[in-house]
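Dear colleagues,

As part of the handover before I leave the project, I'm documenting each prediction I ran so the next person doesn't have to rerun anything. This entry is a single chain, and its sequence is reproduced below.
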Amino acid sequence: MKREATKQLKYLLQHRALVAGLVIVILMFAGIMVVQAHPDQPGTATEQDDAAKPVTTQQITQHQHELKADLHTYLKKVTADGTTSVSFYNLGAIPGSAADKATLTDKFYAQGDLATSANAHTPAVAASTYKLFIAAYVFQQSHLGTFAWTPTNQDGFHRMIVNSANDFADDLLDERGLQGINALLTQEGYYSPAFIEGQSAETTATSLMMVLRDLATQSGPFKHAKDQQKLLSLMKTQVYRDGIPAGTTAATKGATVADKVGFMADTNNDAGIVTLPNGERYILVIMTHGHQQSGFSGFPRMAKITTHIQKMVYAPSVVKGLQN
């Protein structure tokens, strides 16, 4: 028996290369069987296929719901003392923009899907934001043939939007009365009556959001492209930029804002349409009073709110989170 074992050992030594090859083949076969038995291990084809799966509509809707809830919680916090009203409305991407061409981004930021507000139906002093309603009325009357764009009217309208000058709006209200403009506001579904004899004009953040939405979408009193572009162009160059424009720039370099401010006594308001570098757009209205505000002291407060909202809603990580 000892002689037989010695003989076998001598044979294995003589054919060790063949034996090593057989061992390698056996180990490779065993490895393949292990991978097939555990197809979800990292690095397998199955995992790569799963990573390539498109994001579902249900996932997008759930992510929208979560973000909107977080945003609403923030807005409730900043409006809790009753001195602030905020309305946010996402407009979606400009057609043909980078955001519009990115399918997932376009779906996630679909117009109105993230809209929310807080204390936005409470009437507050409009200050010069009411001049957006004056602009809507002037456009309506010009197409009815009862208002002419004379050089004087052109100049007055320009200064009303860019410099927030009062003479054009005051003269128009004195000459035309309050009933006609209040009727337009009612017709369009805006807060009305905004203008009451002997009182400061009042409106709501929701109403200002609605007029800006009509302006941005070329509808309602801004259905004529020439009117829309005229007003947007002036709003982009208005001189008071410490509110929403400042907050927008702090959050995203290269963003542009077309807005109308209002300031009177302790009231500081801002209502704007924001366009981000990738083509996404949103409306933000912030109305503030109290806090011993005077002049423009409330504008940094509005800028801070704007920055927080923009970073929360439009940070690149928001959409990327869907793909993880």
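The longest helix spans residues 16-37. Residues 118 and 165 are 30 Å apart (CA to CA).

All the best with the project,
I.
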